[in-house]
């Protein structure tokens, strides 16, 4: 009965350990990622030579967060300059990223706990012929996108922005520069959208110089620069406590097993003796004929009348 009790106790401790670990440790696997929307913005000659590319995406509601996103960028880009999550208040939270070579591309991955995200990188496909600038861009969907929008901003000091295929709409951006855009719609993973752009520009300065824009400050990565707080160590505290319980349970089980009484060994049955049973030995009678003095206990000769030691008269039976 006691053995059943401690076995049940061990099982309860193991269940508690598994529950705590699963509750505080992030899952290593995730389902298929899908983007509800993605806007790809191309800003040629904005604050660096070449083209600034900005991904602004929304993760589909049926994808569990946090999610690790992975994108292929042109190898010539050298990788992203920023990866960030965007919260419900449109505040940016910058995260570190990992890169790996992938043939003619760079694989970029980062983990985002928010429904929206943004990634930026530069590449330089510009071809200059006098005042004419041209470049080509190709987007290959890393994930299924329910609604893809691609937009190209005309640089400050430029004219005659022309896109092929023809843009499906125009607007003005926050800095009063004209935009031409495509509403592509749904794009399956692996599908590609391509365009070429051209414009005239006589001013060699960048947009940021012409508009006197301030250079963006260095991003503070929230998963790197902040000191470890209490919330960060709680999972490790819980796992340590769970491990302590498990070790204690093992010690308890060992001690209980030592306390259990051992079953006594059964004696082998006696072999039956051959012949008749042996009788218990009977005490031998004193045949020496000697007697003892009733007064002092001295041994007497058989014919003694008086005790030679104490002189008492010998009494005969």
Provide a brief overview of the structure:
The protein has 317 residues and is of the alpha+beta class.
**CATH topological fold name of the domain at 34-226:** Immunoglobulin-like
Average predicted confidence as pLDDT: 81
* CATH architecture call of the domain at 34-226: Sandwich
Give the oligomer, counting copies of the same chain as homo and different chains as hetero. single chain
Query: CA-to-CA gap between the ends?
Result: 71 Å
The top-level CATH class of the domain at 34-226 is Mainly Beta
What is the 3D shape? Answer: rod-shaped
What is the strand content? 35-45%
- Extended strand count: 17
**Strand order in space, largest sheet:** 5-4-8-2-1-11-14-13
What's the helix count?
A: 3
Largest sheet: 8 strands, mixed
Secondary-structure content class: alpha+beta
Helix coverage percent: 10-25%
Report the uncertain regions. Answer: 21-29, 226-231, 263-267, 272-288
List the secondary-structure elements in sequence, H or E: HEEEEEEEEEEEEEEEHHEE
**What is the CA-based Rg, rounded?**
49 Å
Describe this structure in words.
By secondary structure, this protein is an alpha+beta fold. The chain has a domain at 34-226: Sandwich (Immunoglobulin-like), CATH 2.60.40. Helices cover 18% and strands 36% of the residues. The protein contains 3 helices and 17 strands. An 8-stranded mixed sheet has the order 5-4-8-2-1-11-14-13, with no helix packed on it. A 4-stranded antiparallel sheet has the order 9-10-15-12, with no helix packed on it. It has a 3-stranded antiparallel sheet with strand order 3-7-6, with no helix packed on it. The longest helix is centred in the C-terminal third of the chain and has 30 residues, at 230-259. The protein is rod-shaped and about 165 Å long. The model is unreliable at 21-29, 226-231, 263-267 and 272-288 (pLDDT under 50).
């Amino acid at each position: 009965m006691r053995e059943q009790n401690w076995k049940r106790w061990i099982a309860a401790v193991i269940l508690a350990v598994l529950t705590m670990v699963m509750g505080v440790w992030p899952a290593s696997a995730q389902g298929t990622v899908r983007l509800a929307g993605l806007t790809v913005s191309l800003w040629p000659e904005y604050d660096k030579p070449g083209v600034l590319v900005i991904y602004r995406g929304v993760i589909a509601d049926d994808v569990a967060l946090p999610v690790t996103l992975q994108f292929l960028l042109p190898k010539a880009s050298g990788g992203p300059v920023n990866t960030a999550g965007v919260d419900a208040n449109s505040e940016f939270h910058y995260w570190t990223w990992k890169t790996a070579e992938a043939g003619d591309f760079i694989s970029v991955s980062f983990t985002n706990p928010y429904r929206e995200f943004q990634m930026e990188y530069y590449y330089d496909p510009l071809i200059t012929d006098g005042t004419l600038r041209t470049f080509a861009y190709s987007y290959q969907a890393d994930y299924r996108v329910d609604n893809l929008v691609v937009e190209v901003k005309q640089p400050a000091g430029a004219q005659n922005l022309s896109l092929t295929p023809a843009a499906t709409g125009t607007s003005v951006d926050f800095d009063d520069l004209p935009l031409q855009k495509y509403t592509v719609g749904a794009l399956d993973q692996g599908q590609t959208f391509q365009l070429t752009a051209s414009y005239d520009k006589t001013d060699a300065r960048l947009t940021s110089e012409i508009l006197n824009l301030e250079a963006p400050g260095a991003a503070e990565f929230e998963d790197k620069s902040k000191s470890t707080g209490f919330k960060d160590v709680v999972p490790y505290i819980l796992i340590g406590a769970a491990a302590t319980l498990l070790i204690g349970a093992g010690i308890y089980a060992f001690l209980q097993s030592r306390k259990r009484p051992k079953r006594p060994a059964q004696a082998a049955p006696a072999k039956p003796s051959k012949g008749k049973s042996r009788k218990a030995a009977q005490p031998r009678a004193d045949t020496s004929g000697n007697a003892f003095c009733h007064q002092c206990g001295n041994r007497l000769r058989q014919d003694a009348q008086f005790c030679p030691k104490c002189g008492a008269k010998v009494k005969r039976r």
